[in-house]
Amino acid sequence: GVAALAEALKVNRTITSIELTGNAIRDAGATALAEALKVNKTITTIALACNAIRDAGATALAEALKVNNTITYINLMSNYVTYKGSKTLAEAVQNNTMITIDLENFSGNGYYNIIKEGILTSKYF
């Protein structure tokens, strides 16, 4: 499953894009991928839409984004991340102007509140 993929990505030097939309990886899968992304320096694009990812998975990904500067796009559309997870993601990339995070259709529209509060401007999302 995704845990095996994550382990392989830790040593990957050629794959630049991951497309896992609609695979129900949930928080456990997102966390496994996040651990790989902390050390992977070739992945630039990640599609994780429709994977039942919640705040725990979003927080794990946010931690990875703090140390990974090669990711330029991450699609997290249609997951179950609330305001808490959205805020964690926003804070993780505040100083990274090269990344775009697609958060449309988040549960509870948490990311709209992040933008409204001025924590992050919409150009990052």
Helix/strand layout:
Elements: H1 2-11, E1 17-19, H2 26-37, E2 45-47, H3 55-67, E3 73-75, H4 83-92, E4 100-102, H5 110-116
Parallel strand pairs: 1-2, 2-3, 3-4
Helix pairs in contact: 1-2, 2-3, 3-4, 4-5
Q: What does the model show?
A:
This protein is an alpha/beta fold and 125 residues long. Helices cover 42% and strands 10% of the residues. It has 5 helices and 4 strands; from the N terminus they run H-E-H-E-H-E-H-E-H. The protein has helices at residues 2-11, 26-37, 55-67, 83-92, 110-116; strands at 17-19, 45-47, 73-75, 100-102. A 4-stranded parallel sheet has the order 1-2-3-4, with no helix packed on it. Strand 1, helix 2 and strand 2 form a beta-alpha-beta unit. Helix 2 (26-37) runs parallel beside helix 3 (55-67), helix 3 packs parallel to helix 4 (83-92) and helix 4 (83-92) crosses helix 5. The longest helix has 13 residues, at 55-67. The chain is globular.
Largest sheet geometry: 4 strands, parallel
Helical percentage: 40-55%
Can you tell me the overall shape? globular
Helix/strand/pairing category: alpha/beta
Order of helices and strands: HEHEHEHEH
**Total count of strands:** 4
Mean pLDDT: 85
Radius of gyration: 13 Å
Which band does the percent of strand residues land in?
Answer: 5-15%
The number of distinct helices, counting runs of at least 4 residues, comes to 5
Strand order of the largest sheet: 1-2-3-4
Ends distance: 29 Å
- Low-confidence parts: 115-119, 121-125
